Amino acid sequence: MRYAVIAVSSLERQYKGIKTKMKNEGKDVTEMNAEMKEAAIRLLENLAAIDEYSLTDQDKASLGDIVEAALEMFINKR
């Protein structure tokens, strides 16, 4: 979860301006949200590798859900 919070926070900051502009122009951000989730998962995996933490297959299967939970925590803290 710690890695997911870092990944989500980092990506949300990177994409926030772009998403706001797209929403203001009435564009659909669904595809961008999916790309951000996948990027967060890759960053989460990289952070775990840097810490020399091996993710099990069960861990990897749960990464999408963990990123979603971290995103909810991030949004609710604002």
Notes on the protein architecture:
This protein is mostly helical. It has one domain (1-76). It is 83% helix and 0% strand. The protein has 3 helices and no strands. It has helices at 2-24, 30-50, 57-77. The radius of gyration is 13 Å and the shape is elongated. The two termini are 18 Å apart. The relative contact order is 0.20. The model has no long low-confidence stretch (mean pLDDT 84).
Strand-helix topology:
Elements: H1 2-24, H2 30-50, H3 57-77
Helix pairs in contact: 1-2, 1-3, 2-3
The gist of it:
With 78 residues, the chain is mainly α. The chain contains three helices and no strands.
Tally of separate domains:
1
Major sheet attributes: none
What is the helix/strand order? HHH
Q: So what's the overall shape?
A: elongated
Task: Please tell me how large the radius of gyration is.
Answer: 13 Å
Terminal-residue CA separation: 18 Å
Average pLDDT for all residues: 84
How much strand? under 5%
Query: Low-confidence stretches at least 5 residues in length (pLDDT < 50)?
Result: none
**Would you report the number of β strands?**
0
Structural class: mainly alpha
**How many distinct helices?**
3
Proportion of residues in helical segments: over 70%
Task: Spell out the key features of this protein.
mainly alpha, elongated, 78 residues
